[in-house]
């Protein structure tokens, strides 16, 4: 991926970053890069994620999915980092596969039922993913899915692959039923695991090119260097950090491609869980070009100066002509393609923000394919790790989510937790109709 | 709808609003309510939207769609306010209809092609919506759709309904081909038009109960009063305004129902375009419970104190049991249903934010049905108009989006616009791999 931070310069936008400030920041980037390289070399927790392009073996994954490789649909039962990486890849490349990839990443009962009802279960595979093997939502959904297969007379043990840690209920289950299984790699937090077995099972079943994904990531890894002016990933991480430090803490991620819509969700988790701590962090906002020009652009251009926009663009796409029309006022459309309209709208929107002095950054992908996606996923992860070093936070932990997990378990009778008791003490000020 | 603002009180959260401040603010609410009622009585631009429950005639809409009422699928070609209201309703109620509702609200060529390819066009209806009849994305897509029907040998004039203003290319087209058509109501901006012909054509084709939608909205309208302590909609608008004034300008909308996911997009447009001006306004963030507990919660609970969460919950839903398991660590799940798990997760998440002193507001719907949806749509619109009065902005305009529209047109050769020339002058600072 390439990055253009020109519209984040103080000469264009307010807040903005001066070239002098960027040069000063580059010394911190050099130090952070040293730290990151040490972490990678020592395979420290979290930093190890940046070694995945070398460590992930696509052949192991393809062997594991071989028994289910002919499925018409693959249901991934997982949540958060156990679903978003795979979903980003299979949604981006959905047009290239005959196999449908579905994600059960919520426990809404009607929604779960409607997803299961419309699937031909005898032609559907199950991919259950949880490092601990105890994630409540994932295990509840897995119990429901397994039951649905049994009710339909389909042997779920023939159609299930497990991705989990070395021990725990899912590991036990996979041993007991001799299921194909993969191991969640050590030292890799869920939100950084897209390029491991966690993120690559569904893409493998869909027939996507795992080698190209990893090669694209490896090329991005090769570009990591001690200067933000030479490394797109670090340029992105450092610029967004600098914009936040100057008051623009909201990061609106706006891909100009429907196929990349899920990538904005993946990015939001990566950014929010990694950097959102100690009262610090950027707030990721998910949007979509061109659709959200008719929804969010007014705010981005004329609202509070507390935000910047990250555009993600692709240079190449399959295009489609706009048919000619005899309506004079619309004749200009008939000379163009949908792709040209999309491209013009992107350039116009980017320029409209700059003209209003609103900071924005452009991430450019050559196209939406495995190689470019691998580079994008790796690049954003490296950008996040760099930003975490600059913020001085513990990028690889997410302690604030534990409270609610304990309270949930307590509320459902899964043990005594003081957090569950606090739920009953809610302060109410109800206004009823 | 009912609203609970207890967790936004200063006794719970920081920032938070003291009861004394709320009482002082209530005097401004009373004055704003007077202004709103005057605007409604005089049918002023924008305020007229709050009269829709009385002015919309469901029978006119049902008659117009009668020729296409047996369609298996309805494609709405529209963008922004011309799509999001209808999409909110048909997505929320998708489980109740055999008819598939699809929205072409983007010009991504691969995505448009993939949507059209999988539809049985001879059983598909077209709903094209643009007040001016010149919206570039909508007209480009309509030309593409029309062409696809012609290529498939299907007479599009038998299967198209037009919703537009009194004049313009779409009105001319509808006259020329004698198409069924509806009029976009005067004085109602697109983002406030869900409860008019703009938002109700697709729900009508899907067989949803338009009367119940309007009745629910009318009941919410009846609850408008001069005090935030007596009106859920005003309680929501005033509380969010007060939280923003105290530093929490990010409004994360988190429905705990997959069927309401699109409603968060509709809300984001309503909030962003109406309030995002003059360097003011809240930044809406779209999220989803429980999924985003594993993505955004860390940030919401431990990141900067610049945000609050709006939960949307439903009391009733069709439930599904979680099958029992012999795994001891998971036995507590087998005693519950998916709905109970969802509910426990919501309560735990809400309490976890309060325990960390992070403001949040709860909007309660009885269930997801036409009546409750009508109330929710109307209530959020009234809340938005109230907030606009408190901010002192022009709620019903969106001037900042014009620049990019002109630049787009200029870039495509649709006329000479200085905005298009500015695009070429972009400041670049490229970092390439």
UniProtKB/TrEMBL annotation, chains A, B:
GO terms for molecular function: carbohydrate derivative binding; glucose-6-phosphate isomerase activity; monosaccharide binding. PROSITE patterns: P_GLUCOSE_ISOMERASE_1, P_GLUCOSE_ISOMERASE_3. The keyword Iron-sulfur does not apply. InterPro entries: G6P_Isomerase, Phosphoglucose_isomerase_CS, SIS_dom_sf, SIS_PGI_1. The active site is at residues 273, 294, 405. It catalyses: alpha-D-glucose 6-phosphate = beta-D-fructose 6-phosphate. Keywords: Cytoplasm, Gluconeogenesis, Glycolysis, Isomerase. GO terms for cellular component: cytosol. Its EC number is 5.3.1.9. It is found in: Cytoplasm. CDD domains: SIS_PGI_1. One of its GO terms (biological process) is glucose 6-phosphate metabolic process. Pathway: Carbohydrate degradation; glycolysis; D-glyceraldehyde 3-phosphate and glycerone phosphate from D-glucose: step 2/4; Carbohydrate biosynthesis; gluconeogenesis. Belongs to the GPI family. Catalyzes the reversible isomerization of glucose-6-phosphate to fructose-6-phosphate. This is Probable glucose-6-phosphate isomerase.
């Amino acid at each position: 991926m390439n990055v253009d931070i020109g519209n984040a310069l103080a000469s264009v936008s307010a807040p903005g970053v001066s070239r002098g400030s960027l040069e000063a920041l580059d010394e911190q980037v050099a130090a952070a890069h040293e730290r990151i390289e040490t972490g990678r070399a020592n395979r420290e927790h979290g930093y190890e994620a940046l070694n995945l392009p070398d460590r992930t073996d696509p052949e192991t994954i393809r062997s594991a999915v071989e028994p289910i490789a002919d499925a018409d649909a693959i249901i991934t039962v997982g949540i958060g980092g156990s679903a978003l990486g795979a979903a980003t890849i299979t949604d981006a490349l959905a047009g290239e596969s005959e196999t449908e990839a579905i994600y059960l990443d919520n426990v809404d009962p009607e929604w779960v039922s409607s997803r299961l009802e419309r699937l031909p279960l005898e032609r559907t595979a199950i991919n259950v993913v949880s490092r601990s093997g105890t994630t409540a939502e994932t295990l509840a959904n897995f119990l429901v899915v397994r039951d649905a297969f049994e009710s339909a007379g389909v042997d779920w043990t023939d159609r299930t692959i497990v991705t989990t840690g070395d021990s725990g209920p899912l590991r036990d289950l996979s041993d007991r039923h001799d299921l194909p299984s993969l191991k969640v790699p050590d030292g890799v937090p869920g939100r950084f695991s897209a390029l491991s077995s966690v993120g690559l099972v569904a893409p493998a079943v869909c027939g996507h090119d795992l080698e190209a994904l990893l090669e694209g990531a490896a090329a991005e890894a090769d570009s990591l260097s001690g200067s933000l002016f030479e490394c797109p990933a670090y340029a992105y991480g450092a610029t967004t950090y600098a914009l936040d430090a100057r008051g623009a803490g909201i990061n609106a991620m706006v891909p100009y491609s429907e196929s990349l819509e899920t990538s904005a969700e993946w990015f939001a988790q990566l950014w929010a869980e990694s950097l959102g701590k100690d009262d610090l962090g950027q707030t990721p906002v998910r949007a979509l070009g061109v659709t959200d020009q008719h929804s969010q652009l007014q705010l981005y251009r004329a609202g509070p100066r507390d935000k910047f926009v990250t555009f993600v663009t692709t240079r190449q796409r399959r295009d489609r002509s706009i048919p000619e029309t005899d309506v004079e006022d619309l004749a200009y459309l008939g000379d163009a393609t949908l792709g040209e309209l999309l491209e013009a709208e992107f350039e116009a929107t980017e320029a409209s923000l700059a003209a209003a002095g609103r900071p924005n950054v452009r991430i450019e992908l050559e196209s939406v394919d495995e190689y470019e996606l691998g580079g994008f996923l790796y690049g954003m992860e490296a950008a996040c790790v760099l930003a975490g070093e600059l913020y001085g936070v513990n990028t690889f932990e997410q302690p604030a989510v534990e409270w609610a997990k304990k309270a949930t378990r307590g509320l459902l009778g899964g043990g005594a937790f003081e957090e569950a008791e606090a739920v009953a003490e809610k302060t109410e000020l109800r206004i009823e109709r």
